Amino acid sequence: MKRGLIVTGGNKPSRELLFREIHWADIIICADSGFDSMADHRDKIVLVIGDFDSTHRREALEKLDVPVEVLSPMKDETDTEMAFLRMLKYELDEIHLLGGMGSRWDHSLATVLSLEAYLNRCKCIKMIDEQNELQMVLPGTYPVEKGDYHYFSVIPISDSVVFSTHGFKYEVSKLEILRKKTRGVSNEIIEQNAFITLHKGTALFIKSKDA
C-alpha cells in the first residue's frame, strides 16, 4: 500500500499528529507555508510547491536542498490543489492532508469541496486535524474505526444520499437525507469496528471529538 501526505497552510498540526503522519507516509508534498511545519523533517519530502511570497523564502528553501516548484501568483488553482495534482501522479492508495482548514473560510470550503475531483483517482483521501477526520466518499461499504473519536456525521455533497449504519448509537437502514438538512450530523460511534454503507450519492464522512 502506497501512502502520501500533503502538508498545507491553515491550522498547524500538533507535534504528535505531525510525527504520526510523517511516520505513516511514504512520500510527502508541502504546499507553500505547509513547509514551515516540516523544516526539520525533510527525508520523505519529494516536492515543496507554491507561489511563495518572497524571493528570500524561495532562496531559503533551495538552500535546504529540497525540490521546489514555484508557481505563478496569477494561477487559477490554489497551492493545495496543485499539491494534490502533483501527488496524484504517484498513483497512491491513500492520501492524507494536514492543514487546509484555517481562518479563511473561502480556502477551507474550496479545499473540502475540491476532494470530489479526485474520487476516481485515489481510493482514499482524508483531511485530518487534532479533533477531526474527514473523507469524501462514493457509494460503497466503509469500515469506521472508533479510535479516540466519539461522533460521526454524514454530510451530503450530492442533493441527497442514502446510507445504512452498523455499530452506531442511532442505527439507520437505507435512510435518505438531503443536503439542505442537518439530519446526518452527530451520530455516535459505539463499537470499535463499526461500518457504514453509502447506497446512493456522494457524501462527506466526518469522525470527530470534542477539544
TrEMBL record:
Domain Thiamin pyrophosphokinase thiamin-binding, chain residue ranges per copy: 140-204
SMART domains according to UniProt: TPK_B1_binding
EC number: 2.7.6.2
Gene3D superfamilies associated with the record: Thiamin pyrophosphokinase, catalytic domain (3.40.50.10240)
Gene Ontology MF: a single term: kinase activity
Superkingdom of the organism of origin: Bacteria
UniProt keywords, alphabetically: ATP-binding, Kinase, Nucleotide-binding, Transferase
Record-level GO BP terms: thiamine diphosphate biosynthetic process; thiamine metabolic process
NCBIfam families: thi_PPkinase
Family matches, as PANTHER family: THIAMINE PYROPHOSPHOKINASE
Protein name: Thiamine diphosphokinase
Organism: Aedoeadaptatus coxii
